[in-house]
Amino acid sequence: MKSDSIVIIPTYNEKENIEKIIRAVSGLEKTFDILVIDDGSPDGTADIVKRLMDGEFKNRLYIIERSGKLGLGTAYITGFKWALDKDYEYIFEMDADFSHDPNDLPRLYSACADEGYDVAIGSRYVSGVNVVNWPIGRVLMSYFASKYVKAVTGFQIHDTTAGFKCYKRRVLKTIELDKIKFKGYAFQIEMKFTAYKIGFKIKEVPVIFVNRREGTSKMSGGIFGEAFFGVMRLRLDGWFRKYPAIKE
After folding, report:
1. pTM above 0.85, yes or no
2. Element (DSSP H or E) covering residue 229
3. Cα distance between residue 26 and residue 57, in whole Å
4. What is the distance between the alpha carbons of residues 121 and 32, in angstroms, rounded to a whole number?
């Protein structure tokens, strides 16, 4: 029997982590299916996933392979459309590198499935600064990025750049996914802000973010630059754009 939940994990060169994260998610008491979006990893990440798909994780693990590094935002949009087509009710975003703890997935699920929220955000900053092993410069940049978003847009979320989330199906059905503009850090802000402007109920669930132990970070200065200027564009959209009505 198919799960009502799918965890979307974008990958690029995650051979050190991908099997471990798949086993960790699959080992939870609550059943979560997994969709990996691999952007042409030359290190064989996709081959590891396909081996697991053909074995013990058959009908629980899926992969979409893309031809190259096309951006985090487009990876998630691809995954969202796939998940909607397969009729999943709860659709998650999650990193492959264990910076997001798989044990927090049921808490995000419960916020939407049991408490009635439309979006649950695994928040690093809703109860202080819950970040482990990040360089202080990264912590400050991420923390003040969320402060900047709040100041410019008036959007009252503590962790606007968080990438650990659960969406109810109706959120992704309502958001006009092809109109989402940004690909990097700003994608995470734009999705939350759009859900907020449409009128969906959002909850921040406190989590502890742990910096990756294996593999290489994919962050870059250009991603932060996109976010900085993208927030101004979102504010203008908030004034002038007509947002869609909620679809059930």
Report:
1. yes
2. helix 221-240
3. 8
4. 17
For 87, the token pair is 């009729």
- Look at residues 237, 163, 161, 247 and name the one whose alpha carbon lies nearest to residue 199: 247
pLDDT in tens, 163-199: 999 999 999 999 999 999 887 778 998 999 999 999 9
**What is the separation of C-alpha 148 from the centre of its chain, rounded to a whole number of angstroms?**
20
Helix, strand, or coil (residue 9):
strand
b/e 99-129 (16+ beta carbons within 10 angstroms → b):
bbbbebbeebbebbbeeebbbbbbbbbbeee
Distance CA 63, CA 40 (A): 12
Contact 46, 63 (CB under 8 A): yes
28: Cα separation from own chain's centroid: 19
How far apart, in whole angstroms, are the C-alpha atoms of residue 118 and residue 124? 19
Question: Is the distance from CB of 202 to CB of 171 less than 8 angstroms?
Answer: no
Let me know: does 38 contact 64? Beta carbons within 8 Å. Answer: yes
Looking at the chain, the number of H-run helices and the number of E-run strands are 8, 9
Structure tokens at 146: 């969320």
* 168, amino acid identity: K
Q: Which residue has the higher pLDDT, 205 or 70?
A: 205
| Residue 129 backbone phi and psi in degrees, to 5 | -120, 100
Q: Is residue 111 within 8 Å of residue 120, measured between CB atoms?
A: yes
- Assign 239 a pLDDT band (cuts: 50, 70, 90): low
